[in-house]
């Protein structure tokens, strides 16, 4: 297991040890991994340890107070405590664990079964239409890394309370496994499969969600996913932040309208590359939100290179209108990523 994990994480180790480029292709990453994996073992272990060093569940059960004097959510540097309180009554949403048919895009293309976790807001009804946010994990995680596989999930608590206090219109959250291949999961890495996930999003996961839940898409065989792009968002932490940039904006701009990158990992496209990719883009970008910790040795160089000056390079991003770069004291862990989710949840679906 350890040797497989090293292959998947070697590109991250390159950054931590101070050598190599900040952006390399999947093929380059695979080539480097096969030849020099053990050289970067200390850096890789550090990255994994940071990613898994901190997690937090919902706090004590929420009260029913709705006093107008209470402070409401806002995009900022803290998650207000009342938004992390667990709701177990009818005002709390539900979590479903799903399986769906995907394809081994990193292998022979054969069908296999994938898993994901789906948050449905309180009062979910097929009589209503819902926006959808897909959230992605880091290089050492899977669909459970965001904790959206248990009732005490902090993500669930944030969603429940933002909706309860009227800060957002309730929406569906899908915590997916961002590897588009059979190799990977809890006992492997499948580094190349991260870069092929756009195919799974387009062909497998989104069609499943649109066909099984009450979304804004008019699902049918061969339907046009772009027609509901203003009702879809994608976000991720670390490697998932890279996927948001490289795949979400770089390949799937026609099916997503909102993008959130939390501590975007090494191999994220640079701002100049994204500007070049989007040069002829005709789809509106409703919001691109970024956050990274200033003490994050794993991701700050790549995340800032990917996004910090993007509005200066591409006129499709306007700081304060459809773009935000946020950097605060913090490391490569969930203290930053829970805040990122909390802020991004308030920014999406407000066009």
From TrEMBL:
InterPro entries: AB_hydrolase_fold, Esterase-like, Mycobacterial_A85_antigen. It comes from the Bacteria. Pfam families: Esterase. Residues 53-74 are annotated as: Disordered. One of its GO terms (molecular function) is acyltransferase activity, transferring groups other than amino-acyl groups. Residues 53-68 have a biased composition (Low complexity). SUPFAM superfamilies: alpha/beta-Hydrolases. This is Feruloyl esterase Est1A. It comes from Butyrivibrio hungatei.
